[in-house]
Amino acid sequence: MTDLATHVFTGLGVLFFLAGSVGFLRFPDIFSRLHALTKADNLGLGFIALGVAFQAGSWRQVALLALIWALVLLAAGTVSQLVARHALRERDGR
Amino acid sequence: MSGVTLYALTGAALVGTGFFGLIAARHLLRRVLAFNLIGSGLFVYLGAAGARGGEADPVPQALIITGIVVALSASALAVGLIVALARARGRAMLPEEDVGG
Amino acid sequence: MTVWLTFMAMGVLVSLAGALVRVWRGPGRADRMTGAQLAGTSGVAVLMLLAPIEGWATLDVAAILALFGALAAVGFVKALSADGGGDPEEEDGDPVPLAGDRND
Amino acid sequence: MTWALDATLCAMILAVALATVLGRGVFRAIVFFVVYGLLLALAWVRLDAVDVALAEAAIGAGLTGVLFLAAFGRLARSGADAEPPPGRVNIAAALASAALTGALVWAWVALPLPGRPGPELAEALPRAGVENPVTAVLLNFRAWDTLLESVVLLAALVGLWMLARDEAWTEPLGLPQHVRPGGVMASFGRILPPVGVLVGAYVVYVGADRPGGAFQGGTVLAAVGIVAALAGLVRPPRVTRRAWRAALVAGPAVFLAAGLGGAALGAGFLTLPERIAGSAIFAIEIALALSIAVTLAFLVIGPPETGLEDQ
């Protein structure tokens, strides 16, 4: 049962990663590409963390998985905002 | 072919790649990057040698950890020198190689 | 389970390899930097997937990658601000003009 | 079947390294080098070297990126970021590189397989005072090596500071940093450091028994310091501040004191007798982590600058 949950969630997570990369490659400009980064990949990472949590032997490991996901969300939110601002300035600056 | 051999071959190839970059690149920042490739290639090679026979050997690991930290500090010093050179000359290349461009 | 998780980790790496094409092509510096950010997220995902196989200490490595996932990009926007210490959200100062090709 | 993952990872590491060397433009090379560091951390996990992976993750993901990107920004403001157009293909260099790689491959195939790990280590480990064999090697069996390496870090920092201009000497380290108050970067700089300090202290603390230790934890703490400095949370100190200078030498000093203590107890210089080994290593780890963190952070921030050098 737990193995099935791991299969389903990690598989779903990897699908989101693949979708994110396709978007990152095919979207026309940096602003839409940042969506691929912040939406698809972080959702995918959440599913992977969830799937791996079913294999965890203790709550400490589950808590660490959750903390890691939270840290990645914080990083992605910060980076997409700052990089988008930078790109906007660079575009309007010239 | 076992996984460890794969990493050893990768390490060997990284050393070659970095060596090529060290000679071929003219911008000094790229040379520092290439030099780091050589160093980390050797680390991978050494780490793979330590992982032969199943259990990872702690002695190369200890050498590599200090090596990584020292490599960063050496890079920081090199980068500082390059920035100082660029501020003095307006170029980040060695004078004898600074032709064209 | 080992085989499944290994293949999932491979899947994440393959998706990262695709994203690295964008780092190669650019065209803008922001595009390349975003690719590096994506590599960090993918690295965290791979380490999570490897944790049940390689031992849960792997999650400590993932935590460090996650912690500093934004550091390179923050350093990027800082370094290319007008005086090298700015913030793109501030009102004044445009990014530093570069002598090289704007996309290099 | 799991070798397929190793093959994918190795192929990507190699491709990214080639992109670093062959791609046009310095900025592209730096970004690929950052990606390279991230992939190497994964490789260390696959090689069962979690201790190395911890250090590589903190350095590869955090510190090298900031170091090289800041340098790129400084060069750009001096008008020195451009690269000359590539010259002719350097055939001699390519041949020499191929020969170097070939020699290493030959050495790998030709070298005899040693018994791993050496039996001497397994015998000595119960007397080391710690359970993590990597920490035992670093701080006990090869203490000379590690002590001198901590001094090398200091020497690099002194060398970097010698590049400062006279009028900048009393200024804070690095370029002046400013952020929009209440902005995204400022918030990031407030949220991350507490978590980061916790993770760094944890990595130092568990180093006695599990993967972690002074070098790994020190690099994490250095990166946390960089985040705090970039986000304007703390102002980088001045070179002349005594407390910070003390932090720089605390690690080597405590290390040396422990070594002398070993000599005083009759075990020989830098040989830790079994009954004090555990506590001595703990003290060395804490002091060394502090020194490594401060030294690396200062190295990445750079020498003191007035902020007017580029104009």
Automatic annotation (TrEMBL), chain A:
<keyword id="KW-0812">Transmembrane</keyword>
<feature type="transmembrane region" description="Helical">
    <location>
        <begin position="63"/>
        <end position="84"/>
    </location>
</feature>
<protein>
    <submittedName>
        <fullName>Monovalent cation/H(+) antiporter subunit G</fullName>
    </submittedName>
</protein>
<dbReference type="GO" id="GO:0015385">
    <property type="term" value="F:sodium:proton antiporter activity"/>
</dbReference>
<keyword id="KW-0472">Membrane</keyword>
<dbReference type="Pfam" id="PF03334">
    <property type="entry name" value="PhaG_MnhG_YufB"/>
</dbReference>
<keyword id="KW-1133">Transmembrane helix</keyword>
<feature type="transmembrane region" description="Helical">
    <location>
        <begin position="6"/>
        <end position="28"/>
    </location>
</feature>
<dbReference type="InterPro" id="IPR005133">
    <property type="entry name" value="PhaG_MnhG_YufB"/>
</dbReference>
<feature type="transmembrane region" description="Helical">
    <location>
        <begin position="40"/>
        <end position="57"/>
    </location>
</feature>
TrEMBL record, chain B:
<feature type="transmembrane region" description="Helical">
    <location>
        <begin position="6"/>
        <end position="25"/>
    </location>
</feature>
<dbReference type="InterPro" id="IPR039428">
    <property type="entry name" value="NUOK/Mnh_C1-like"/>
</dbReference>
<dbReference type="Pfam" id="PF00420">
    <property type="entry name" value="Oxidored_q2"/>
</dbReference>
<dbReference type="InterPro" id="IPR050601">
    <property type="entry name" value="CPA3_antiporter_subunitC"/>
</dbReference>
<dbReference type="GO" id="GO:0005886">
    <property type="term" value="C:plasma membrane"/>
</dbReference>
<protein>
    <submittedName>
        <fullName>Na+/H+ antiporter subunit C</fullName>
    </submittedName>
</protein>
<keyword id="KW-0472">Membrane</keyword>
<keyword id="KW-1133">Transmembrane helix</keyword>
<feature type="transmembrane region" description="Helical">
    <location>
        <begin position="63"/>
        <end position="86"/>
    </location>
</feature>
<feature type="transmembrane region" description="Helical">
    <location>
        <begin position="32"/>
        <end position="51"/>
    </location>
</feature>
<comment type="similarity">
    <text>Belongs to the CPA3 antiporters (TC 2.A.63) subunit C family.</text>
</comment>
<keyword id="KW-1003">Cell membrane</keyword>
UniProtKB/TrEMBL annotation, chain C:
<keyword id="KW-0472">Membrane</keyword>
<keyword id="KW-0812">Transmembrane</keyword>
<keyword id="KW-1133">Transmembrane helix</keyword>
<feature type="transmembrane region" description="Helical">
    <location>
        <begin position="6"/>
        <end position="24"/>
    </location>
</feature>
<protein>
    <submittedName>
        <fullName>Multiple resistance and pH regulation protein F</fullName>
    </submittedName>
</protein>
<feature type="transmembrane region" description="Helical">
    <location>
        <begin position="59"/>
        <end position="77"/>
    </location>
</feature>
<feature type="region of interest" description="Disordered">
    <location>
        <begin position="82"/>
        <end position="104"/>
    </location>
</feature>
TrEMBL record, chain D:
<dbReference type="InterPro" id="IPR007182">
    <property type="entry name" value="MnhB"/>
</dbReference>
<dbReference type="GO" id="GO:0005886">
    <property type="term" value="C:plasma membrane"/>
</dbReference>
<feature type="transmembrane region" description="Helical">
    <location>
        <begin position="6"/>
        <end position="22"/>
    </location>
</feature>
<feature type="transmembrane region" description="Helical">
    <location>
        <begin position="88"/>
        <end position="109"/>
    </location>
</feature>
<dbReference type="Pfam" id="PF13244">
    <property type="entry name" value="MbhD"/>
</dbReference>
<keyword id="KW-1003">Cell membrane</keyword>
<protein>
    <submittedName>
        <fullName>DUF4040 domain-containing protein</fullName>
    </submittedName>
</protein>
<feature type="transmembrane region" description="Helical">
    <location>
        <begin position="53"/>
        <end position="76"/>
    </location>
</feature>
<keyword id="KW-0812">Transmembrane</keyword>
<dbReference type="InterPro" id="IPR050622">
    <property type="entry name" value="CPA3_antiporter_subunitB"/>
</dbReference>
<feature type="domain" description="Na+/H+ antiporter MnhB subunit-related protein">
    <location>
        <begin position="186"/>
        <end position="297"/>
    </location>
</feature>
<keyword id="KW-1133">Transmembrane helix</keyword>
